[in-house]
Amino acid sequence: MASKEIVKQEIQVSSKKRLVITLSWCKSCGICMELCPREVLGAEEVTKRVILVAPEKCNGCGLCELSCPDYVFTIQELEEILPDARLRQGKVIQ
Ligand code: SF4
Ligand code: SF4
Fold this sequence. Notes:
Blueprint: E1 8-14, E2 17-22, H1 31-35, E3 41-43, E4 50-52, H2 63-67, E5 73-77, E6 91-93
Antiparallel strand pairs: 1-2, 1-6, 2-5, 3-4
The structure holds iron/sulfur cluster (2 copies).
One iron/sulfur cluster (SF4) is lined by residues 19, 36-38, 40-41, 58-64.
């Protein structure tokens, strides 16, 4: 059986908070896109999977983490204070 690639993306929300998004777990239900109060999330044109359309607007409220039935979102509280909170915003990790 071929192994499936796990694709993640992250938003550095503040110097002590990060939102990690496991894009490849998304089942395209659209709940998070409806609920995000800052219009950070959108749907990819073909697959309708979640994508980041405005990562700079994310305030780390955590609604996406609470609402996604497939555990796509994780808010991480960081122990280390990063010097530039926006430096890694929207970075794709594979
Ligand atoms: S943490 Fe809040 S603002 Fe950021 S993507 Fe999730 S629901 Fe939207
Ligand atoms: S709530 Fe989860 S499964 Fe549904 S579209 Fe958003 S990320 Fe995908």
